[in-house]
Amino acid sequence: MTHSVVIIGSGFGGIGMAIRLRQAGIEDVVVLEKADGLGGTWRDNTYPGAACDVPSHLYSFSFERKTDWTRRFPPQREILDYLWHCARKYGVLDKVRFGTEVTEARFDEDAALWRVSTAGGELEARVLVSACGQLNRPELPPIEGVGSFAGTSFHSARWDHGAELAGKRIAVVGTGASAIQIVPEIAKEAAELRLFQRSAPYVIDKPDREYRTWEQAVLRRVPVLYTLSRARIYALYESRALGFVKYPKLMGALEKRFRETLDEGVPDPALRAALVPDYRMGCKRILISSDYYPALTRPNVELVTAPIERVTPSGIRTADGREHPADVIVYATGFSTSGFLAPMKVVGRGGWELNEAWRDGAEAHLGITVSGFPNLFLLYGPYTNLGHNSIIYMLESQFRYVLGCVDALRRHRLDWIDVRPDVQDAFTREMQDRLRSTVWEAGCKSWYMNESGKVVNNWPGFTFAYRRATRRPDPRHFHVRRAQGATAR
Asked: Which domains are assigned to the chain?
């Protein structure tokens, strides 16, 4: 059966896109989800302490604002519940096919259709939208002996809730955004916890607190107050873009917060010195926590900075010859982020494979359209990640752009639209030129980069500038093929 739109993924991007399509009168939409529930990263990451580092008033769709968050920074369970609420309220839950993993998508140029292969069969789509996200494929570190450990081990995004942690010797590998939430929680019950740090992160205090019942009631009954709160937080976070992308010296205020957070949380000067990063602030993701540093001072917690040599059946051996026995190993080592649509095989016009097109790094005009792959649209694609604000704002900009393209296909009776290669190349050159002056190019290695060290994830500017750039598709940017019998308007 041929569908108007097929969406791959049911996180914020997939569910939001399906809702917007339905509101635009496009009912023939299918959402393919490989898991047995929706939610994307908020479904997968259920580790202790999992929460968002963007304030809750920014972490909801503009068309479905949530006023009853329990905390200033929303916990994982509430975010997931919110997505289920949106899917039900806007009638798109029955459009999701769970347990349906896409293995290949191939464009049939003659039929002007995407033929999408899944483990359960094939379906066709006039328009294909990838909403896979950037944080969906857990990455284990390339350490010798990872598979030899005799105890319990798992990635933080595949948390083993059946694992017994109380009274155990636990090793946590990694010091990123997940680790700083996990460590304070599991240190409370571990007999011993060793945190293996390859690179110290910048951590600033997290101004989190519970919302009082009366505050929730006021926000619900006086919508303008919620709007003002949302606008204030957006403006505050948006102002940080200047430090990330234009004037790195403006990061000084955040650096001061980091120093204060570290000094207050870690009295021991030797431990404090080991927690000072050796790169410019902002080059890697800035983390927020008020209990991470105090957790590292607990008598049952040890920070290990010697490089890991190998994993052994009984624990971890470091390069200084020390053996660190463990009953449980938690790999808080992040995700493979530069493949975007991997491991799917995506084939466009003339049999051109996306992996080949992206051999030197992922490219997409505005992070949405890829030359040679007609009627394919990416959400949260290359150059659309942020270091300073809510990704939902970026997604909603992309929804509008994709809807404009879908409307053009219908209104002008087009078989397909395909972004011109020169337009995509010009956009990529602009991104790379602008990224050179950003803090992300300050010499560190981060998940914002691909294997060759090229930053391909982040948007080097203000989010409102991205919204302006995506306000509507420019017909001059595309090659088109008109449907047989269609006339120009």
From this structure: 2-137+336-482 (3.50.50.60), 146-209+217-331 (3.50.50.60)
